[in-house]
Every structure is written in structure tokens, then in C-alpha cells.
Amino acid sequence: MKTMQLTPLGDGAVLASFSLKNDFATLDKVARIARAFAGSSLPGVTDIVSACTTITIHYDPARVPAGAGSPCDRVLAWVETAAAAAGSKKTKAVREITLPVCYGGEHGPDMADVAKHTKLSEAEVIRLHSKTVYRVAAVGFAPGFPYLLGLPERLNTPRRATPRMVVPAGSVGIGGAQTGVYPLTTPGGWCLIGRTPLRLFRPENETAPTLLEAGDMVRLVAITSKQWDQQVEQSVPLHQAKVSKHAAVLEVMKAGALTTIQDMGREGWQQHGITAGGAMDRRAARVANLLLGNAEDDPLLEATLVGPELRFLRDTWIAVTGAEVKGVAGWRPLRVSAGQTISLVELTHGARVYVAVAGGFDVPRVLGGAGTLLRARIGGWNGRALQVSDRLAARPTILDTKGDWSAAMEFRTVGAGAVTVRFVRGTQWDWFDSASQKALVEKPFLVTTQSDRMGMRLSGPALKLKQERELVSEGVGFGSVQVPSDGQPIVLMADRQTIGGYPKIAHVIAVDLPLLAQVRAGGKVTFVETSIATAQALYLEQEKSLAMFRTGVKARLG
């Protein structure tokens, strides 16, 4: 298609950009092409995410069908073929959703500021904002958060100088030329002018977990505070897991700094703004499960910086991988007895330790995954980090092994004070000046204390654009290196948002992400450029080694 430009987004995604205006007609065209991609169904494609004038196709290189060239080459060829067939797709009727909004007062604490900035009365702000017909340009930032296209220019209002730490769920805000609705209670910097009583994120609904989707038409209806109280929707509590002492395999004696249940992430939900999540150091997590004969995606524990203390309530086997732990042998099956306590409190090298149990932890799956999404409060152990006295059960299994053996050194990520990671150029590489491009590969960056599961925040030379440019929000991936206005890069990690509006100078390749996951604050990160072909060859080599390891382990386990 003449209007479509294809760009690799790292070694696990492709960005299809359309040289069209960000308007209603473009949304319809992008939606039609996205449906063509979904209908064509290439094995290995995990997510298709529409966002304004782009579509991001996420894929697993190891699952893409064999053929000529690299997995990226084959995905690009499929995208072009599927997009060419989009013209024959029928135009889908646009859904129309009505959102009641109570404007001003306690529900819209920034209404007076918006009225002052726009030189309108509060009544005029309400009239303009509620009488406009909007379209959902994208869903992202948080599960179910709609970016609404169509805000009248007169209502454009800058974001707050100081973001709020708590924005109530349902809050309607204006941020620059955009308007949207916060589906969850989160921090936020948009000016709040009202609040809807409807729930935008509904994780109990596996068919439609979000009220709004990209392309939907949205009409806002002003309501009174009394009507808001009458129409407010209560959250539907998800199943709260409880495990008796008799059924549990372990009890938490000390919780650690942040201990959660994780897996390999969710697939197929990013178009709803629901991140894939999963383990930060996926290689270590996979090996932990493989050591016990579990499936690689079985739920296991991930602990950060300070691990938990666990008391086992029955005989079983565990495997500890990732960071090195004082007094605990890692990277091998360990037999533990009922009444035994294992302390993972002191991590001597590395930032994250993984604990798998024979059979895998038995927790409910939410939206196709068992991993904890803290921001969305779903998955894992009741959507939260583990606490003292929590008890966990494991699925039944029979396991026995003999001899002293462990995983090969090639799978181990040794936490170090300095790491070198390889990257491929980001989708906005050419936006940055030559000095910044040079600094990225010649200067080390320090990991800051603000780093978390969403992103590794780095401090170093300020990376600058050649000129100020506005980027319409588009897809991001695990390893995307965003550069905000302060010039300090952020490497997006497991719990990243699904779309972002900061330019991406680079993308850390998949096989090196475990290195970043194990670096503590203060550690040095050095970047080295590589190619997509090399990145994917390394990934396929890793997958081959893990497959051989899986076969070898089966021979040792009874």
C-alpha cells in the first residue's frame, strides 16, 4: 500500500505507519487493515495493536513459520500481503457508546483552571466538551484508557505542572489537545473536568474486558451529581483465592521487597491497553520451571532486591534461578521437606530471583494469564504482591531425580555492576542528532532508583532531537528505549504501557533483556548496536539451546 510504511520495532514487532491525518477517516482505514491482519492469522503473531495512524504487530520469532530470510522478513512479507487484501474487507459498522459524565465540583477539580485557561465559562466548557462526537483513536496507558479524538481546539489545556499521585477511576481529563478517561485509580497529570460512573475496565469479562475499543464513537452526556450516585457501577470482585494450611505447599514468613507470581506474560490483550507483563528475566524463569519438569509458562515467584522467607508445609522440589542468594544453591532441583524454611532474603548478586515449585503454583488465570499485573490489580495472588501469612498451593505432580546436576552456565544471568546490551535502531532513530546517536554507543548510562517493572530509567548524556517534533502515540515493546523531553532514556520492561508518545531511539534485543532485569540501581549500562538479523539469529539459537536443555532434563527426572 502506498500509504503504508513498515519499520521493525525491535526484534519482536513490526510497526505499520500510515501517512494519513489523525482523523476519523484514518481511524476507519486503520481499523479495516487491522481486521485484515487479524483475519489472516499468521502463526507466531501474538498481538495486533491499533493506535491512531499506526498498527503494531507483535510476534515471537521462534514461532513464525520457516521460510526464506529472517523471521522479520517473513512477517514483513505477510503484513504486506494481508494489507493488500484489506481493500476487499467490508466496512464495519462503528459502535456508538454513550458515557454519562458529571462535570465540575468534586468530580472535576480542575474545571475552574480549564475555564480560566480557555477564557470560557465553566458552562461553556461543559457544553463544548459534552456536545462533541469523539472517536477512540487508541486504547493504552492503562487497561481500557481511551484516547478520544475530536477535542475542540478551544479546550486545549496543558497538563498539570505537578501530576496527581491519585486520580480516581472514571475521571475525565484534558491533556494538551487530547481528552480521555482514566479507567483505574492511577497517578496522572491531565486536568480533571469530570467523572463517569461507568467502569471502563472489566477484567471479569474475558470476551470484552474494556468498555471501549479503538474506532468506537463516543458521545458524552452531562449528568448531575445525584444522577452520578444513581448510575455508579460497582466493581465486580474477581475470585479471591484462599488456600488452607492442609492444601498449601508453603507459607510466606517474610514477604520481601516485592514478591509476585509471574509467568511468561499474556498474549492477545494489548489492543485493550492490557500489557503482556510476565517475568522480567524470562530466561531465568523458564529455566527454573524446566529444572522441575514444569511447563515453561507455569506460575512461579519473582522477588526483587530482597527475597521472601518461605516455610514449606509438605515435601516437594523447588528450583531457584536468577539472582544469587546467600545460602541457597541455584540453578538445580532442590528437595525440601515439610517444616523446612528457605530464606531468600539476601541476594548477593543480581536484582531478581525466581522460585519454581514442582507442578507450578496453583493460581487462577485471569485474561489468559497467571502473572500479576499490579497496576491493573489482576492475576497472580489476588492481584497483589505476596504478604506475610499468605499460603500458596501447587498443582499435583510426581517428581524424582538423582545425582548432582544443574543448568549450564550459558543460561545464567550473573548480576553485575556493569552490563553491555545490544540494540537495534528505534523507529525514531533519525529524529535524534548525530551527537546523541554517538553518545548512546560511546557513553555509559547509570540505572536510577526510579526503575521498576515498567521501565529501567537511565541517567547519562542527554539525548536530543534535531528539532522539536510531536509523535502521535504508537506501539511500544519489551526493550523499546523511549526518550522523554529531559533526554534521559527509559528502557521499557515487562509491565510497560502498550502505546507511547515519546520517540524511540533504540530497542534492546530480546536475548539481552535478562541482563537489564538483573542490574541494580547504580549499575552501568553500555549500548552496542547490532542488526535485526543478528538479534533474531541469537534468539533462535537461545530457543534451540533451551529445547535441548528441556530434552536433557526429561531424561534426568522420574
Instruction: Tell me, rounded to a whole number, the average pLDDT.
Output: 94
Instruction: Report the oligomer.
Output: single chain
Radius of gyration, rounded?
24 Å
The helix content, as a percent range, equals 10-25%
Biggest sheet overview: 7 strands, mixed, barrel
**Order of strands across the widest beta sheet?**
5-12-9-10-7-6-13
Low-confidence stretches: none
Number of strands: 31
Query: What is the end-to-end distance?
Result: 55 Å
Find the structural class using helix and strand composition.
alpha+beta
- Tell the overall outline: globular
- Total domains: 4
Strand content: 25-35%
The helix count comes to 9
Topology:
Layout: E1 4-8, E2 13-18, H1 24-40, E3 45-51, E4 54-59, H2 71-84, E5 96-103, H3 111-118, H4 122-131, E6 133-139, E7 146-149, E8 164-167, E9 171-175, E10 178-181, E11 186-188, E12 191-195, E13 217-223, H5 225-231, E14 250-254, E15 259-262, H6 282-290, E16 300-304, E17 309-312, E18 316-325, E19 333-336, E20 341-343, E21 347-357, E22 391-392, E23 418-425, H7 434-442, E24 445-447, E25 455-459, E26 474-475, E27 480-482, E28 490-492, E29 499-500, E30 504-508, H8 513-517, E31 524-529, H9 532-556
Parallel strand pairs: 5-13, 23-31
Antiparallel strand pairs: 1-2, 2-4, 3-4, 5-12, 6-7, 6-13, 7-10, 8-11, 9-10, 9-12, 14-17, 14-22, 15-16, 16-21, 17-20, 18-19, 18-21, 23-30, 24-25, 24-31, 25-28, 26-29, 27-28, 27-30
